[in-house]
């Protein structure tokens, strides 16, 4: 795990948007393709439910505009498993994260022990890759976030409201870029937990609420620590 100080933070404008530049991922050298195939095949043997969907990779990030292209999840997975492939794959996979404000505080989920990435740590939720849904080539960040809230927590668009963007945080090594948005619900934690359990989503082992004080929470993922810091700035009028 990289030092927690090594996680780049990107400012986001209120109206940040995503545009698709080049439509297709570039071809890979044969030896890189073979390495990607080997990592993906091994992962599928262990977890047959893994799906090679289309996910978005950022080529350029500015506060008001993110441009990039669609690529295969298996390439993203290979870069996560083997950071030595960063030079050849050159991916910055985009993800959306909701900093979910419930009456009791900010909802965080403990990543499952068998999670592909950062198992056991607590993170803001819902969260997920920006992916092509129903073959759509456009990217609607709010729609992506609402879909994750429904899939992971059982919170549909009548139960949550998307607020302003906070910050983007890039993961060292994997180069995943999390785009955090405020997410609001009037539902109390017990109701959120009940809906999450009814969804039977195994992304998280548990949920809890915390108050975003200035204290650092060692069990939180580094991006979540930065999201909470940004939230405190917003609360202070920033």
Automatic annotation (TrEMBL):
<dbReference type="InterPro" id="IPR015797">
    <property type="entry name" value="NUDIX_hydrolase-like_dom_sf"/>
</dbReference>
<feature type="domain" description="Nudix hydrolase">
    <location>
        <begin position="91"/>
        <end position="224"/>
    </location>
</feature>
<dbReference type="GO" id="GO:0003824">
    <property type="term" value="F:catalytic activity"/>
</dbReference>
<protein>
    <recommendedName>
        <fullName>Nudix hydrolase domain-containing protein</fullName>
    </recommendedName>
</protein>
<dbReference type="InterPro" id="IPR000086">
    <property type="entry name" value="NUDIX_hydrolase_dom"/>
</dbReference>
